[in-house]
Backbone:
């Protein structure tokens, strides 16, 4: 597959123009296309390896969720992201498409408070269940008292 073919498939299927040069494409999507993007890059572009998921807190501008997936045969990578509003930090879970998204979505939930709709077991993964807040949010008060470790 060529860069042009990959970009054309993304443009046709998702209606979004990718950026970047071969062998890496980037894609910014509205959150309602998030799950569609995962299907397209896996099924149409062969990106079956879920490399990572993370988030970026832009304060009043909301949160970006960023995913990188790879086609290990070609090699070829796609990084796609979506912006979540500050007051509605939720998006579709990618666990139905990529099993590797499970723990990384739980980490983003734990650290940033992002709700992944459809996640099979969305709960804290790094901090105790009774921890207050989400430490990687820029609004997190580092002086927030936390329960003692047991």
Residues:
């Amino acid at each position: 597959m060529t860069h042009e073919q990959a970009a054309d498939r993304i443009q046709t299927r998702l209606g979004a123009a990718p950026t970047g040069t071969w062998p890496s494409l980037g894609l910014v999507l509205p959150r309602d296309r998030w799950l569609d993007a995962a299907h397209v890059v896996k099924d149409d572009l062969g990106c079956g390896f879920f490399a990572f998921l993370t988030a970026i807190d832009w304060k009043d501008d909301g949160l970006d969720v960023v995913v990188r997936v790879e086609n290990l045969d070609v090699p070829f990578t796609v990084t796609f992201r979506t912006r979540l509003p500050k007051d509605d930090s939720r998006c579709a879970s990618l666990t139905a498409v990529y099993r590797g998204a499970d723990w990384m979505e739980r980490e983003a939930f734990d650290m940033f408070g992002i709700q992944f709709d459809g996640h099979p077991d969305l709960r804290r993964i790094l901090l105790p269940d009774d921890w207050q807040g989400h430490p990687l949010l820029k609004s997190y008060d580092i002086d927030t008292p936390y329960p003692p470790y047991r």
